[in-house]
Design goal:
CATH class: Alpha Beta
Catalytic activity: L-threonyl-[protein] + ATP = O-phospho-L-threonyl-[protein] + ADP + H(+); L-seryl-[protein] + ATP = O-phospho-L-seryl-[protein] + ADP + H(+)
Strand content: 25-35%
GO molecular function, one term: protein serine/threonine kinase activity
Keywords: ATP-binding, Kinase, Nucleotide-binding, Serine/threonine-protein kinase, Transferase
Structural class: alpha+beta
Number of strands: 6
Organism: Aquilegia coerulea (Rocky mountain columbine)
Largest sheet: 6 strands, mixed
InterPro entries: Kinase-like_dom_sf (IPR011009), LRR_Rcpt-Like_S/T_Kinase (IPR051824), Prot_kinase_dom (IPR000719), Protein_kinase_ATP_BS (IPR017441), Ser-Thr/Tyr_kinase_cat_dom (IPR001245)
Helix content: 25-40%
CATH superfamily: Phosphorylase Kinase, domain 1
Strand order of the largest sheet: 1-5-6-4-3-2
Radius of gyration: 15 Å
Length: 113
């Protein structure tokens, strides 16, 4: 597959993912939004890391504290990302974190809890 066709495939695939995510309900955030929430992914705001990436403490302008899980691109495939968003957007229990939103950009895949 040449670069031109690869780019078209990625765009079509990304559009499909965005459509599915929109239907699930969580809000879409940009990489810029996430940088503001976490003070540019400051190491002082890093609260954990694991097999899928790092987690940062963040804060909405309203004062609500959030955790931003930044997924490493090499480990993230659309199906895995969609499965986590699908599961967390439908789950509700007082002992579970709430999925506020996500970022699904070419160079940034993240979940906002």
């Amino acid at each position: 597959m040449d670069m031109k066709n690869s780019s078209k495939h990625e765009d079509a695939s990304s559009n499909l993912v965005e459509k599915c995510l929109h239907e699930l309900g969580p809000k879409s955030y940009s990489n810029g939004n996430l940088m503001r929430f976490t003070l540019n992914f400051s190491e002082s705001n890093k609260i954990g890391s694991g097999g899928y990436g790092k987690v940062y403490k963040g804060q909405f302008r309203s004062g609500v504290l959030v955790a931003v899980k930044v997924l490493e691109n090499k480990d993230v495939v659309e199906e895995t990302f969609m499965a986590e968003v699908n599961t967390m957007s439908k789950a509700y229990h007082r002992h579970l974190v709430k999925l506020y939103g996500y970022c699904f950009e070419r160079d940034m895949k993240a979940l906002v809890y």
